[in-house]
């Protein structure tokens, strides 16, 4: 889950921000720091079950 969130965050960052290396590095660091607690919440905190319930799976 963490790898998926980092990949999505990095992809969105490359499309929305300027292509200079410093900005990409800062975005990557921020995405990694944010992806760890978000993936923990989704997997262990019941967030994924709530999302599936809303979608209807």
- The number of domains is 1
Structural class: mainly alpha
Shape: elongated
* Total of helices: 3
Uncertain ranges: none
The profile of the biggest β sheet is: none
The strand count comes to 0
Pfam family, one: DUF7534
Keywords: Membrane, Transmembrane, Transmembrane helix
Transmembrane segments: 25-44
SSE arrangement:
Blueprint: H1 2-16, H2 21-44, H3 47-55
Keywords, please?
57 residues; mainly alpha; 3 helices; 84% helix; DUF7534; transmembrane helix; transmembrane; membrane
What does the model show?
- The chain crosses the membrane at residues 25-44.
- InterPro entries: DUF7534 (IPR055956).
- It holds the Pfam family DUF7534.
- Helix content is 84%, strand content 0%.
- The protein is built from three helices and no strands.
- The radius of gyration is 14 Å and the shape is elongated.
Short précis:
Pfam families: DUF7534 (PF24378). This protein has 57 residues and is mainly α.
